[in-house]
Amino acid sequence: MNRVKQQAEFAVYTSLAFIFGYIESLIPLPLPFPGMKLGLANLVIMIILYRKNFAYAFGAAMLRNILNAITFGSLFSFFYSLAGSTASLLIMALMRRWGNGRLSILSVSALGGIFHNMGQLIVASFLVGPAPLLWYVPILYFSGLLTGAAIGIISGQCLARLPKDIGSGAGNL
User: Fold this and answer.
1) Disulfide engineering: 149 pairs with which of 1, 74, 110, 142, CB 3.0-4.6 Å?
2) Alpha-carbon span 121 to 129, nearest angstrom
């Protein structure tokens, strides 16, 4: 794939992640705990991780975080997103690579969901200290597990249905 097509494909993936993140912000979840989200933007990041590589997924995730912070967030939201995305992507890339195919996409994504929440919890503990947040750890663990598993299931279904090389063929980027 030539450079222009690669850049266009990267822009499409990043835009989709940005749009999914925006759509998710419009859906109010009736949850009693602050900050919980489904992680719809992570659906796109998972697809990139499995179709491309860690660097490509990391670049799209970081650009999405910057765009979200500039458009809808703040410096604090950027740091939370940065910590969560980085922790999540690192563990998913490691587990995908070291798992040698033994770990399903569901397992990899569930770990990513857990680590995303733990990365954000680390940022919060720097702001308010770790003691007031200890009660929140199990809640974030299980919410990350459930949402990560859901994103893993959806990602697996998307990957099974998408063409192997999205960038090839007439009319495709």
Assistant:
1) 110
2) 10
- State the amino acid at position 89 in one-letter form: L
**Pairwise CA distance, residues 169 & 77, whole Å:** 39
Q: Which of 2, 100, 91 is nearest to 45 (CA)?
A: 91
163 neighbors 127 (Cβ within 8 angstroms): no
**Of 148, 163, 140, 116, nearest to 43 (Cα)?**
148
CA-nearest of 81, 70, 80, 17 to 47 is: 17
pLDDT band at 172 (very low <50, low <70, confident <90, very high): very low
Q: Cβ distance 151 to 43 under 8 Å?
A: yes
Cα 89 to chain center, whole Å? 7
Instruction: Please give the Cα distance from 103 to 70 (Å, whole number).
Output: 36
- pTM of structure: 0.88
* Torsion 102-107-113-119 (CA) sign: negative
Nearest alpha-carbon partner for 114 in 142, 75, 133, 85: 142
Number of C-beta neighbours around residue 100 at 10 A? 7
- Mean pLDDT for the stretch of residues 77-101: 91
